[in-house]
Amino acid sequence: MIIAVAGVAGTLGGSILTQRGSERAQRREIELIRGHEEIRENRSLRRTCYVELNRDARQFTTALNRHLHVMREHGVEDSDRDALEEAKNAHRDRYSEAQMTAPDSVLMRASVVNQALNKVYGEVKRLERGDPGPGETMETAAQAQYELWDMLRTMRAAMRHDLGVSPED
């Protein structure tokens, strides 16, 4: 009788242990799947943020260039000011989003672009008002605006590297 009870207990105990082991394996598999989904969602969020930041930074740079041309050719009108402000505000919003999304390696380069854009913007606005700072001319503003393109390329390369699209240079 003792042997029969031990046999039944062993059989029941073995199936309980097998069931618990199976449940643990399923939990690990679910956690692994959730981890992969989270990584995929995070990458998708960063990709969207990078696309928009790159686009808006380029549009702000282009708007600064256009504004400088308008200032040289015929003077600035309200619609020109509005277009520049719109580009500036769009970039500001994208940069704010990147501050909460991008890793430090990308954010460092995005910050350089943001600071340079704001510096050129300030110079352009002072020139527009007829109150340039020391050494500020249309030529220095145009040169500073032109130099933004290299910074944008560096930022874009960091974003592409973070997304695994290309190796870091």
Number of DSSP strands?
0
Give the rounded overall mean pLDDT: 90
Poorly predicted runs: none
Please estimate the helix content: over 70%
Distance N to C terminus? 77 Å
Query: In terms of structural class, how would the helical and strand content be classed?
Result: mainly alpha
Along the chain, the helix and strand elements come as: HHHH
Task: Outline the fold blueprint.
Blueprint: H1 2-73, H2 78-101, H3 104-129, H4 138-163
Description:
The chain has about 170 residues and is mostly helical. About 90% of the residues lie in helices and about 0% in strands. It is built from four helices and no strands. Helix 1 (about 1-75) packs antiparallel against helix 4, helix 2 packs antiparallel against helix 3 (about 105-130) and helix 3 (about 105-130) runs antiparallel to helix 4. The termini are far apart. The mean pLDDT is about 90.
Question: What's the gist of this structure?
Answer:
The protein is mainly α and 169 residues long.
Which terms would index this structure?
169 residues; 4 helices; mainly alpha; rod-shaped
